[in-house]
Amino acid sequence: MKEEAIRAHPAYPALEKPHAAVHAHGKKAAALFAAGDREGTATSIADMEKASNEVVRLLNELIAR
């Protein structure tokens, strides 16, 4: 698939939000871990995993094209 076709696919712009969320939740998890908040860390990691799963799903959509 050419770059222009990838960018035109609806999954491409849909990647932006969950991709940013992966990084945001990861940074939050690291900060909470450093602060000793194990429960908050676990919640942030779970949120990061959800966002990561969405990124993988969208990437698989692009690959399937």
Note down, in words, how this protein is organized.
The chain is an all-alpha fold. The chain has one domain. 86% of the residues lie in helices and 0% in strands. Helix 3 runs antiparallel to helix 4. The protein is elongated. The mean pLDDT is 95.
Name the helix and strand elements from N-terminus to C-terminus, one letter apiece.
Answer: HHHH
Q: What are the low-pLDDT stretches, counting only 5+ consecutive residues below 50? A: none
Mean pLDDT: 95
Helix content: over 70%
Termini distance? Answer: 7 Å
How much strand content do the residues show?
A: under 5%
Report the total helices.
4
Radius of gyration from the alpha-carbon trace, in angstroms: 15 Å
For the record, the count of structural domains works out to 1
Write a compact overview of the structure shown:
The protein is mostly helical and 65 residues long. The protein has four helices and no strands. It has helices at 3-8, 11-14, 16-34, 38-64.
Task: Please outline the helices and strands.
Blueprint: H1 3-8, H2 11-14, H3 16-34, H4 38-64
Defining traits:
4 helices, 0% strand, 86% helix, mainly alpha, 65 residues
